[in-house]
Design a protein that fits this description.
alpha/beta, DNA-binding, 6-stranded parallel sheet, homodimer, 6-stranded mixed sheet
DNA sequence: TTGTAAGCGTTATCAT
DNA sequence: ATGATAACGCTTACAA
């Protein structure tokens, strides 16, 4: 049997209350402290987090719901988040919902039944459809942090990426290099991030008075295959773009695959700007110009906010923090041939 | 305040014991059952998993320790695992250790302190260094499932991939196509999987009496960059291989990047066989010939074994299940030019 | 500062 | 089949 604080108390010749207080960082009389520490060590005592949780209504777990476990942007954030909260002894229950609304709702309920102390929620296509579920958390004062998505009707902490500007900068860069025909491969038509990124694209075109051409505006659903076929369609069209901007990791890779297949040379014949930094981006030749989202920083931020809320500190609530992106300029862009 | 089983009992006019029994699937007298169900619904009662856990010494969580959250093979398995165990209301606490021994040990301890009901452990470079920690679990009768790794001294359930044969088949295929100079880009020198895959490589060469040449045997540490530089070295050497076999996803992509950079045509000038099926593998041109590991199946298997153990069923303990791989033949291989 | 004891939401034993 | 009640391991008034 695992030793309990009772065993420790007995061995140390003090009461359970004293041991408990020691465990919670309260001061004991010197000689008692020594006895307790000795007993703990000798018995190899570990406190029972579950029992503790029952008493203070805390599970010491944080529910995290991401789109997919194989989504590198999401998991990068989670990695940093975990590092941050583990310091205060929280652990993460990670769930994915594979773009399935029912599954998402189910998971939200599931985590609530498990009494998670906080919730971190990742981009989704249906903020509206799940406000109800999220509201259940808020009603019980369970802190919720939303990552890079829009919950217009709900007051939660949010960490947002400056998607609009990110996109604007990328496209502006291309324009300044002389491109006038810039294609975009964007995500889900009605996701928050896609809309923002699209808006940035339009803004840049407008600023430089470049016509918008629907033929080179594609929706790739944030998938490899989507990026691939979108790129292919554009490049095989009557009037192909001289530059392509892909708005996430998977579509960027997909687009590159298409380009390579068509034997189009980057950046001579086509410039490419992608999204998300990934290990391969420095390996591929030519190295990719891309927008880097500060995933680690976002995870850390989310963790810090949660820890603060969990301590009852709501002084800066609600945080809507917008983090900047970085345009990493590498070799995949150049001026168009006939400019 | 959340309603408790007491509130339900009161509202239904029965005792807490009755409600508890109902909740646990025991039979009640018809009219009682109806009253209880009604009360539960009206109060929107949810049982408290933590309190439950305190009583039966169960946390309803399964600790999963993988190398990295961004490792697609690992996360694919976890996805399937989660699907399997969630049906019985278990959730997963997912940890990664980023190839850091201390972190791994820390995580193992961390999960134990959280009273996980079972442990799933992923390939590591140091099976020996952590037997101690794993033993702590076994001593407390906490089921442990090891995925694709070797714990020679420990009796645990294991799910193994038939790495040796996988590798053998791939190399044999190349040989049969006429290749005599086949390079291998392998993982960590002393990881279990690497050794097995290497052994399969050697076995194939031996069977067909092909000399082993250290110059085209490289260790790429399972990373993109490792694969990239290993491929580059081989291909730029005095006597480059006519075929390359890369033993995981990341190195495969890295190797391809190198090949493309060197403007070597696949499969005309170089055949490539990779490891792990990934979304991009069907997108890239030429499509990749590769060894597919049955990640989903492995996750499901692990989940099923755990659920069985958790029910006390040790009738088939210890399972050392070896799952077969599949060689998916696509366009990236062909006979060498001068054969 | 410390001990005592009630209670967190369940389950399980023992009567009935 | 059901009710009463003592646990599970811990925290926290309250008293000393």
């Amino acid at each position: 049997m695992k030793p309990t604080i009772r065993d420790v108390a007995q061995k140390a010749g003090v009461s359970v209350g004293t041991v408990s207080r020691y465990l919670n960082g309260l001061k004991l009389r010197e000689h008692n402290r020594i006895k307790v520490e000795k007993a703990i060590k000798e018995l190899n005592f570990k406190e029972n987090i579950i029992a503790k949780g029952l008493k203070n209504n805390r599970s010491m777990t944080i529910g995290v719901v991401i789109v997919s476990l194989t989504d590198i942007f999401g998991t990068s954030i989670v990695t940093a988040l975990e590092r941050t909260v583990e310091k205060e002894n929280y652990s993460i229950i990670l769930c994915d919902y594979e773009n399935d609304l029912d599954r998402l709702k189910y998971k939200l309920q599931f985590l609530r039944d498990r009494s998670v102390d906080a919730l971190v929620l990742f981009p989704s296509i249906w903020p509206n459809e799940i406000t109800e579920s999220v509201n259940d958390y808020l009603r019980d004062d369970i802190p919720v942090v939303v990552i890079d998505d829009d919950f217009p009707t709900l007051e939660t902490d949010k960490i947002l990426v400056d998607n609009m500007n990110a996109s604007f900068q990328a496209v502006e860069k291309l324009i300044k290099m002389g491109h006038k025909r810039i294609g975009i491969i964007n995500g889900h038509k009605n996701s928050y991030t896609s809309k923002e990124r699209y808006a940035g694209y339009l803004k840049a075109l407008q600023k430089y008075q470049i016509d918008v051409d629907e033929d080179i505006i594609k929706w790739g659903n944030y998938s490899n295959h989507g990026g691939y076929s979108a790129a292919k369609k554009m490049l095989l069209s009557y009037k192909p773009p001289t530059a392509i901007f892909a708005t996430n990791y998977y579509m960027t890779l997909g687009a590159i695959a298409a380009v390579q297949e068509l034997n189009i040379s980057i950046p001579r014949e086509l410039s490419i700007i992608g999204f998300d930094r990934f290990p391969l981006s420095e390996v591929i030749k030519p190295t990719l110009t891309l927008i880097e989202q500060p995933a680690s920083r976002m995870g850390r931020l989310a963790g810090q906010i949660i820890l603060r809320r969990l301590k009852g500190d709501y002084s800066d609530f609600p945080i809507h923090q917008q983090v900047p992106t970085k345009l990493l300029i590498r070799d995949s862009i150049s001026s168009p041939i006939n400019s």
